[in-house]
Amino acid sequence: MHELSIAASIVEAVTETVANHPGAYVKEVRLRVGALASVVEDSLQFCWQIATEGSSLYGSALVINQLPVIVHCDACDLDSQIDGVQSFRCPNCGEIAADLRQGRELEIESIEIEDPETDDSKIGALKSIGDHI
Ligand SMILES: [Zn+2]
């Protein structure tokens, strides 16, 4: 299952990131997922429960921030958001705009932890996880 391997990769990346906070537990993991990353949110949430079991991430929330597809049109010199993923045409002039600016992201935006040792709560951790899959 695609989503299970994604969930496992996130758990691995987060575990590495929080390794220098030994007493901490993870409260929340925020993801940025592009519309073209072909991730089914419900399925990923379900797999999250399985992948985090027995880890320091158990019980943490997975927040998925869906990013729309944005293309750049050379003719108009504009970045535009397109609604569907069927046609990559500039909404302004109708020309094919194949220059993808956003939509394939699959990355960890931030990790929120509870660390009794320090007051740290948020770790900025923009990390692409697409490469691990
Ligand atoms: Zn255009």
CATH fold topology of the largest domain: hypothetical protein PF0899 fold
Give the overall shape, derived from the CA principal axes. elongated
In the CATH scheme, the class of the largest domain would be Alpha Beta
Question: In terms of per-residue confidence, which ranges show pLDDT below 50 for 5 or more consecutive residues?
Answer: none
Structure classification: alpha+beta
**Topology, number of strands:** 7
Instruction: Determine Rg (CA atoms, Å).
Output: 18 Å
Order of helices and strands: HEHEEEEEE
**Proportion of helical residues:** 10-25%
Strand order across the largest sheet? 2-1-6-7
Write a concise keyword list for the protein shown above:
133 residues; single chain; hypothetical protein PF0899 fold; binds zinc ion; 4-stranded mixed sheet; alpha+beta; 3-stranded antiparallel sheet; 2 domains
How does this model look, in words?
By secondary structure, this protein is an alpha+beta fold. The chain folds into two domains: 97 residues, hypothetical protein PF0899 fold (2-Layer Sandwich); 34 residues, no CATH class. A four-stranded mixed beta sheet has the order 2-1-6-7, with helices on one face. Strands 4-3-5 form a three-stranded antiparallel beta sheet, with no helix packed on it. Strand 1, helix 2 and strand 2 form a beta-alpha-beta unit. The radius of gyration is 18 Å and the shape is elongated. Bound molecules: zinc ion. The site of zinc ion (ZN) has 7 residues, from loops.
